[in-house]
Write a structure and sequence with these properties.
Helix content is about 15%, strand content about 35%. It is an alpha+beta fold. The structure holds dinuclear copper ion. The site of dinuclear copper ion has 8 residues, from loops.
């Protein structure tokens, strides 16, 4: 089969680009240790509703101004969808998903996680300013993705 020279050059260019990109991804994963957020904790995604503490999602007081918030991201809602805390509380979020990949982004903070079934993602934030902080799913997860939101109420 005859392949025109320009076409051959273009084909090799495509193959070379693919190799370079795959190499860069491999390098980033190994050299920079890029992993899913808080890669230390895993969970059976088919048993989230039976696995403590995710069987009773919500807030657990861990100190005077510290709570752990266990939340489940299940299409198309977060459970619980709203959490209320006093100003100055440091919240450690633990979030998992029993179905598909979701996002977990809290407006005005650096809490921005990808929630992957089988993993427990974790992030921490101290809420100093009273107000309502919007919690959004920022990974497209289905036709009702835009209804997947909640709030953090800081009083
Ligand atoms: Cu969950 Cu988008």
């Amino acid at each position: 089969m005859h392949i025109h020279r320009s076409e051959r050059v273009w084909l090799w260019f495509g193959v070379a680009t693919l190799i370079v990109f795959l190499g860069l991804i491999g390098f980033a994963a190994i050299a920079d240790g890029i992993q899913p957020p808080s890669h230390s904790q895993t969970i059976d995604p088919t048993k989230v509703a039976q696995t403590p503490p995710f069987d009773k999602p919500g807030i657990h007081q861990t100190g005077d101004h510290a709570v752990d918030a266990y939340m489940v991201a299940r299409y198309p809602a977060f459970t619980p969808s709203t959490i209320s805390i006093p100003a100055g509380t440091e919240v450690t979020f633990y979030v998992t998903s029993p179905d598909v990949v979701h996002g977990f982004y809290i407006e005005g903070t650096d809490v921005n996680m990808t929630i992957v079934p089988g993993w427990v993602s974790s992030s921490q934030h101290r809420f100093m300013t009273p107000g309502t902080y919007l919690l959004l799913c920022n990974e497209y997860c289905g036709v009702d993705h835009h209804f997947m939101y909640g709030s953090i109420e800081v009083k």
